[in-house]
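INFO  loader      accepted 1 record
INFO  loader      residues=140
INFO  predictor   begin
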Amino acid sequence: MRINLKRLDSDFNFEASNEDGNTITIDASPNIGGHNKGMRPMQLLLAAIGGCAAIDIILILKKQKQNINFFDIEVDGEKENTSKEGISLFKTIEVHFILNGNIDLKKAERAVKLSMEKYCSVTKILEPTAIITYKVSVNS
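INFO  predictor   done
INFO  writer      dumping C-alpha cells
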C-alpha cells in the first residue's frame, strides 16, 4: 500500500492519492495558516474509523440478506493535549450507525459489534489511546 502526497499551495494544502488514482484533499486549520481546502489529518482518522466499520457492516449484513436502503455514520471525537509539545490525541470517540431498510435490529447490532470489537483495523489502532463507544439506530 502506498500513498503519495502532493503539495498544492505554499501553505498546508495537499492532495493525497493512492495507487488506484483516488484522491483526497488535506489542509490545516486556519488558526495555524490553513485555508479549509480539505480535511485535517485528525478528521481523516474519524472518517477512517467510520469507513472501515461501514465496509465490515455492509459485508456482514449482505451475507445475512439484509437490505440497506440508507446508511449514515456520525463520528464524534474529543481530543486532549497529552504532552508539553502539544500532541493532541483522541480521548473519546463515539460512532453512531444509522441504518434504514429491511434490516433486523439484532442483526445490525451484531454486525456493528463484530466490526467495532473484532474486524475494524482502524478501531484497533485507536483503542490504545481513546475510549471508543458506538450505538446503532435502525429505522428510527
